[in-house]
Amino acid sequence: MNKERLVAFFDAMLAIIMTILVIELEKPAEMTWNAVLELRENFFAYALSFFWLGTMWVNLHNEWHDAKYISRSVIWWNVILLFFSSLCPYVTDIVSNNFNSSMAQVLYGIIVLCVTFVNIFMNNALEKANKKDTELKNKIITNRNRLYIDIAIKLIGIVVSATIYPPAMMISVLITMILIIIPSKENEVKNNEQKV
Description:
Layout: H1 3-23, H2 33-37, H3 40-66, H4 72-86, H5 88-97, H6 102-129, H7 134-163, H8 168-195
Helix pairs in contact: 1-3, 1-4, 1-5, 3-5, 3-8, 4-6, 5-6, 6-7, 6-8, 7-8
């Protein structure tokens, strides 16, 4: 299988997953601003999940852009990544309808962490498939180090959600997206523009 076919498959599946997110979004009971405001937690959960998946998509494309080879291992990690990502609409619906439930937030956190861990394993497989490409290897190592910080913050979010403040899980995902993932990719884009 060539890289383009795998990327096209991933793009199509992720587009379906992100579309399901909006289909699962609860509608207002009546058409008033108060009824819409009552769904603020639903909209927050939807927006966070949508942009988190979107950020993952952008990051994968940045890494895969330089990759020349894929292996069976990369393909299977990609399938596993799509499996856990496909659970995102399900857990987003659960957490948006039970926003202050520790169990709902922890369940959401488990899926988010599974996606993050699988990203690390897939990056390792991509690195092995392209072992002679030192530039890609350095990019993957830098990303992996960021993901370790990302995981630490999300684990703190799960613990706080399970013990004292349920929404901490979703807040930890928001924090990692704003402080770690998005700024790191902006720096990467600037570095790439300077090279050109």
